[in-house]
Amino acid sequence: MKSELTATSVKPDILKTHSQTNHTSNGLIEEKQDKDKKMQIDDKKFKQLDGYVGFANLPNQVHRKAVKKGFDFTLMVVGGSGLGKSTLINSMFLTDIYSSEYPGPSLRVKKTVQVETSRIVLKENGVNLTLTIVDTPGFGDAVDNSNCWQPVMDFIESRYEDYLNSESRVDRTKKAHIDSRVHVCLYFIAPSGHGLKPLDIELMKKLSDKVNLIPVIGKADTMTPEECTAFKKQILNELTQQKIKIYTFPDVDDEEENKVNKQMRERVPFAVVGSNTILEIDGKKLRGRKYPWGTVIVENMDHSDFVPLRNMVLRVHLQDLKDVTNNVHYENYRVRKLAGIGTDGKPVKGGIEKNPLAQMEEEKKNHDQKMKKMEQEMEIVFEMKVKERNQRLVDSEIDLKKREEGMRRSLEKLQREIEERKKLFETEKFTWEQQNGITFDELRRKNMENLTKETSKSESGVSVRGRILTSPTSTKKKVSVKRSKSLRQSSNSSTSRSPTECRPT
């Protein structure tokens, strides 16, 4: 009895499964028929040509024009100092973009949260790529990192604004219409093994709506493979919890490439290792790092995710990064800007439903008001400068007057002193004349007479001396003459002294 019950209980399930399989098979057949009908309709739309026309060569024309024109690509690198950003850039493009002449951000003395750009033209198989590297030296190194992301956000917004202004100009040639927008941002995460920092979460939230964001774990050779895998899972969980959008690599047409790309996408966030040192291993020159315990090869996928990152960014999805930047991020900015909506989603004052002509008039009025304000400020500054100059002249004039007054007083004082000395001299002269009973004029006259007598005697003595022979008596006379001369000179010197010197004690 039990066996019969079980058999009867199983039959309805079997019938149900048969009915479900029949239903699904019928649905598949109907879907296939619908697809065939659509293909037939599409085939009717296309008309076959009897011969070769030539427009099939259009892709080649586009290719030649694009190669001749060249390509622009802007790569932003954001993260803390010492995570290997400059080394990774050199490894990605196989050239020394950062060298001893132009060192990376971590090697510079001055480190401030200031966005710096470096542009270089790369050439590969006849294709020119104008690469612009945007780095942020000193990001996250300060004690207070509040609003340290603002320069990065302002830079991205300013590039969008420059592109929008260049689109609105009359001249939109290549020189005037340069695409300087940021196409991808590699955000470097420190290999701490403890998840994302609050600063990383805050900045990645702000960047996810503005640019194609790709998280990268720098210096991944500091972790074991197990630690690296656990750290990646932790980062992805935190990104989903915080609702941070990162760039998703799209599928391609080839199924085999899709399988490879799927394996590459599973490595996000990429744990990379960069190196500027070229090592020779088994006769091959490779970029790597040599340690006491072994050698890390940059392009070895067992050691690093460098190859998947380079392939996904440069070889496979470089054009898609530019398209997403143009069609998604830039369009969002353009809509917000033209509709008068701020970055926070709230409308800006006077920005909604405004006529372009009225907007131009308002801009003209604002410009005129700004110019008038500048003129007033310039006039005020000019008046202030004139006042300062006049004040300087007045001060210098007062100073000159003071100096003149001081010099006049000093001259008057000297004049008074000279008058006093002159009076003193006259009194002393008068007292001396009274004491000696002779005036200075009489004394001067006597001295002159004595001098004339002496000169006449000396002349006569010379004539006589020539006649007389030399003898002891003549020598005696000479000595007496010399003594008389010395006595006369002493008397003359005593008479020529001033009254004060000859005054009796």
Strand content: 5-15%
- Assign the structural class, choosing from mainly alpha, mainly beta, alpha/beta, alpha+beta, or little secondary structure: alpha/beta
Instruction: Give the overall silhouette.
Output: elongated
Q: What is the count of DSSP helices, taking H or I runs of 4+ residues?
A: 13
What ranges have pLDDT less than 50 throughout 5 or more consecutive residues? 1-25, 105-110, 469-479, 490-505
Distance linking N and C termini: 176 Å
Helix content: 55-70%
Which labels suit this protein?
505 residues; three-stranded antiparallel β-sheet; 9 strands; disordered C terminus
How would you characterize the overall build of this protein?
Helix 8 (306-316) packs across helix 9. This protein has 13 helices and nine strands. The longest helix has 81 residues, at 356-436. It has 505 residues and is α/β, with parallel strands linked by helices. The radius of gyration is 54 Å and the shape is elongated.
